[in-house]
């Protein structure tokens, strides 16, 4: 008799959140007709049993390799994401490092801009010529002055970012200056071979190696290089921030023109330099505003970044950068049209520039000059006295 054989229909069940799409859940389900005519005699093969056919269920599960190990599950995820980057840009302070803050009026607002430029020059030279204690004292002085002069929401943000950058430079240069010890081989035999006593150690306790961290070592050379670089970076950024937030672009242009006047007799285009400086200080504020405003516009649209592919996220960032440059070029064109309307024809020497008429006070100028002379004297004293 012709016995109806069972029909096997393979069906695949794909889980939507499976981390391994190549290993689906596959079921082989045996289907028989409703009323099968099973004869009295069946196959006697031990590999083919009718009763076991109804209980057969082959299920392919995921491999154990797809499960992440414990150390990988303990690592923090989503530390750097597109949404966090844009939110940090959009939530940045509205008073960047180059923007003038008119209120509240502080002590530095009344100081002559020429004295401020002299301070900037001294703060660039001092970290490289002073003692290490003087460098850290200079950093402390600038931090206290920033906290006293600038508003709280400004100096907290600026000091935090500048201190983080300086700290990273300090650690990298301190541990990397002498990270790999030099292999030095003496050209003379040791004293014991020549019958001479060993050289006694230093009585003052001098040690070139300060401490060692695995293969890295922190030496006196690394400390000097790291402290100089970190102090120089901190002083440049923070002194520029204090000068730009308490001085208008017109006052800075007037001070620079006063210092560069003698160079005009040797053919230096002083007028073009001053006009370029004035336009740059005005234009940098627009760049900061455009970066923050465009980022705020993207964040306000509440994009679901988890549903975007990698190339789609990159395309959003390219759109963001393209929009920034487009707005900046539009602002540059508007500035050009405004200068043309006001009579600028390309000759900076014949174009009249009106500087700020704000005058400085006598007492702040005297105090700032005395402090500058005292700082230079303290740096010279630390160079020759502190060893």
How many H/I helical runs? Answer: 11
Q: What's the order of the H and E elements? A: EEHEHHHHHEEHHHHH
What's the structural domain tally? Answer: 2
Rg is 37 Å
The overall pLDDT average reads 75
| Helix share, percent | 40-55%
Largest sheet features: 3 strands, antiparallel
Strand order of the largest sheet: 1-2-3
Uncertain stretches of 5 or more adjacent residues: 6-32, 38-65
Shape: extended
Instruction: State which percent range the strand residues make up.
Output: 5-15%
Number of strands: 5
Distance between the termini: 111 Å
Give me the oligomer status. Answer: single chain
Structural class call reads: mainly alpha
Can you walk me through this structure?
The protein is mainly alpha-helical and 387 residues long. It has two domains: 7-63, no CATH class; 82-179 and 207-384, no CATH class. The protein has helices at residues 50-55, 70-74, 82-90, 113-129, 132-149, 152-176, 220-246, 249-260, 270-300, 310-341, 362-384; strands at residues 7-13, 25-31, 58-59, 209-213, 216-219. Strands 1-2-3 form a three-stranded antiparallel β-sheet, with no helix packed on it. A hairpin with a 2-residue loop joins strand 4 and strand 5 (216-219). Helix 3 crosses helix 9 (270-300). The chain starts with 6 loop residues before the first strand and ends with a helix.
